[in-house]
Specification:
CATH architecture of the largest domain: 3-Layer(aba) Sandwich
Number of strands: 11
Strand order of the largest sheet: 9-8-7-10-6-1-4-5-11
Distance between the termini: 63 Å
CATH superfamily of the largest domain: HUPs
Radius of gyration: 23 Å
CATH topology of the largest domain: Rossmann fold
CATH class of the largest domain: Alpha Beta
Length: 263
């Protein structure tokens, strides 16, 4: 069984985000890039399946410039068997549909019995690419899983839904998206990191998967970023004073009544 794990590089959540001069993107010069945290759950789940089953290969797939190979080498250090990067360095911008077209074409080329992806990416947060890939490949999609088990070509999942859980099953091949709580991603050791640096990454061009660069122009984008702005600054909060809880409660009530008209 070949498990394909989709990886996306995103800005580290601890990075300070600055808008670019154009106002439609971020300044990436000082940004530290990491694997999307939700994709880490997918990779860990693939590795757990590999450890519990025979004849399982874990292939990580990403699209981007050569910088994206850093994520693949991290996956190597964790235990992935193969890494593939689709070179999109000549494409100035991709929307979700464009990315889904590229990734689904690559999956058709390399083959996959199970496709794992994060429920969402923490940069654009649009939840769309895995669903689009499933639609383009004609595969079932189970999103937001918290548990899975594979038996005789069927995957049994526990899916998180609003207010509870759903037990869902789907025939393989299928697309699953993972969320926080499904597992605890492991960390690579230094020896594995050093070995991963020497491993090759397979690079596919757009031509290799049946596309041309001219098919992904700004004019073909269905969704475009018009502008980005910083969130409005919040006013500082008020600290309620008082020697006891009762005094603080009185102070809070007086504040709400006299200064905010809440009471």
């Amino acid at each position: 069984m070949n498990i394909v794990v989709l990886l996306k590089q995103v800005p580290d959540t601890e990075s300070v985000i600055e808008l670019s001069d154009s106002g439609v993107g971020i300044d990436t010069e000082e940004i530290k890039w990491v694997i999307n945290p939700y994709d880490e759950y997918s990779l860990e789940e693939a590795l757990l399946i590999k450890e519990s089953c025979e004849e399982v290969k874990v292939t990580v797939l990403t699209a981007g410039s050569v910088d994206a190979e850093k994520s693949i080498r991290t996956a190597y250090a964790l235990g992935a068997d193969e890494g593939i990067r689709i070179d999109t360095s000549e494409i100035p911008e991709l929307d979700s549909l464009g990315m889904a077209k590229i990734l689904s074409a690559a999956i058709e080329k390399i083959g996959g019995d199970l496709i794992l992806a994060g429920l969402r990416a923490v940069d654009d947060d649009n939840y769309q690419v895995p669903a689009m890939i499933a639609e383009r490949l004609g595969l079932p999609l189970v999103s937001g899983i918290l548990q899975q088990e594979i038996k005789s070509g069927v995957v049994f999942c526990r899916q998180g839904i609003e207010g509870g859980f759903a037990e869902v099953e789907a025939n393989l091949p299928a697309v699953l998206t993972t969320q926080k709580g499904i597992n605890e991603p492991r960390y690579p050791n230094m020896r594995a990191i050093m070995k991963a640096r020497k491993r090759d990454v397979e690079v596919l061009s757009l031509t290799d998967i049946g596309f041309e660069t001219a098919q992904f122009t700004a004019e073909n984008l269905l969704v475009k970023v018009v502008s980005l702005t910083y969130a409005a600054q919040r006013e500082p909060g008020k600290i309620v004073q008082g020697a006891t809880a009762a005094e603080k409660a009185i102070e809070l009530v007086n504040y709400l009544r006299q200064e905010t008209d809440v009471l």
